[in-house]
Design goal:
Number of strands of chain B: 8
Structural class of chain B: alpha+beta
Radius of gyration of chain A: 12 Å
Shape of chain A: elongated
Strand content of chain A: over 45%
Largest sheet of chain B: 4 strands, antiparallel
Oligomer: heterodimer
CATH class of chain B: Mainly Beta
Number of helices of chain B: 5
Number of helices of chain A: 0
Strand order of the largest sheet of chain B: 1-8-3-6
CATH superfamily of chain B: Jelly Rolls
Largest sheet of chain A: 5 strands, mixed
Number of strands of chain A: 5
CATH architecture of chain B: Sandwich
CATH topology of chain B: Jelly Rolls
Helix content of chain B: 25-40%
Radius of gyration of chain B: 15 Å
Distance between the termini of chain A: 39 Å
Strand content of chain B: 25-35%
Largest interface: A-B, 22 and 29 residues
Distance between the termini of chain B: 41 Å
Number of domains of chain B: 1
């Protein structure tokens, strides 16, 4: 079974509760992420706690997409 | 994909044997909801735990000020569980959870069947309760990061 990435997403620069969701890959800085109907850009990504089994635990900081 | 393979990708079941996964699979129901459907209501009794298989849900809590709108405290996507507090402490629902994606597929576990399974197999009970504790810890870490 492939790795699963459980990610705590925090949005900077606006009032937003963030999200927790699984991904099938580790997001990269600059990647676009959709939380519900809203889309953001990954600004920072760090390991939050040690890996357990196939699960990796990450924290990602997001910002709004500039238009 | 086999049902056991689907369950293996759920963090709640991490560390279980194939046999244990199969026994949990036997008490796991499936539900599909539409956008706007309420899954749990804050303050109401609850006897079920939910795991988001596909889709996205919004978790809201009421404000102390009855004039204020409920506040969204977190959004939960694929692989995340909710309703576990009522499963563990038998208390009322701590939040209202609503489907926000066009469709949301959930795994549903009834408390009585789950606790019976834990009584019958202490290894399964230990692993699942440890995973619930780890998930609650992760949610606390997320809240701390949001509040920073």
């Amino acid at each position: 079974m492939e790795s699963i990435y459980k990610i705590s997403y925090v949005v900077l620069g606006k009032e937003h509760p963030g999200a927790i969701m699984n991904a099938d890959h580790k997001p990269e800085i600059g990647e676009h992420v959709k939380l519900g109907k809203e889309e953001f850009v990954v600004d920072e990504i760090v390991d939050l706690i040690p890996t357990r089994g196939i699960f990796h635990y990450l924290h990602a900081t997001l910002r709004a997409i500039e238009v | 994909m086999e049902p056991v393979d689907v369950l293996r990708a759920v963090e709640l079941f991490e560390g279980l044997t194939d046999e244990e996964l199969a026994s949990l699979g036997a008490i796991c129901g499936r539900e599909t909801l539409q956008a706007g459907d309420i899954i749990t209501r804050e303050g109401q009794p609850g006897k079920r735990l939910f795991i988001v298989y596909k889709g996205f849900v919004e978790v809201t809590r009421s404000s102390r000020d009855p004039e204020s709108k409920p506040r969204t405290v977190v959004n939960l996507g694929e692989g995340q569980m909710f309703g576990e507090m009522a499963l563990v402490d038998l208390g009322p629902r701590s939040a209202t959870v609503r489907s926000v994606s066009p469709t949301t597929d959930l795994f549903v576990i009834e408390r009585d069947a789950f606790l019976q399974l834990c009584e019958n197999n202490h290894h399964l009970g230990y692993v699942v309760m440890r995973n619930i504790a780890a998930d609650l810890s992760f949610k606390l870490r997320h809240r701390n990061l949001v509040a920073r």
